[in-house]
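User: Before I run my own analysis I want an independent prediction to cross-check against. Here's the chain; please return only the structure tokens and, at the end, one sentence I can use as a sanity check.
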Amino acid sequence: MPDRTAHGRTHFRGAAGDWPGQPAGGPDTDSTSDAEAVDQLTAQLEVAKSLAAEHLASLQRTAADFANFKRRTAEDRERELGLAGEALLRKLLVVADDFDRALDHMPAEFKDAGWIEGIVLLDRKLRALLESEGVTAIESVGRAFDPHEHEAIAIVPGTGRPDGEIVDEVQRGYRVRERVLRPALVAVAGGEAGAGDTTSHIN
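Assistant: Structure tokens:
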């Protein structure tokens, strides 16, 4: 009769690969393969993270460049509109100058005429329009000459005023908000009075 016990013992002492479901390489081979796979996945993850960071930085730079472009474009548009607006305001100042001359040289006998009141009303409306756009007159007479706000066209000696003080305003100057729209044309005190002295004009 065959020895079943011995046969069974021989079967169970077989190689590791003889176990059902067990790879021929054994447990140590599986551990090494898993470790290598983990290392590979970790390396791939680091590469992916690096690429993602580069793409994110590139997108952020592109977004910043676009935002700066929009800001510069808006500023350029506002500047162009501002220049166009200032050009129109300067044209209106010519009309204001005409009103100034008409009212300053109006004959006394016409001051009570009804049509004069109409001219005064139109002048007031024009001044209100200019003020609504931020346009205000530059003060001149009695103030010290300021080359940023005034343009001297004459020097008047012997006025008894300090040199450089504005003694007459030939044409009114204006500023729009904080910028000079048009400097005032003025005459300033300067020099000593002498025989035959006359007003000196600056060309």
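Sanity check: The chain is about 50% helix and 15% strand.
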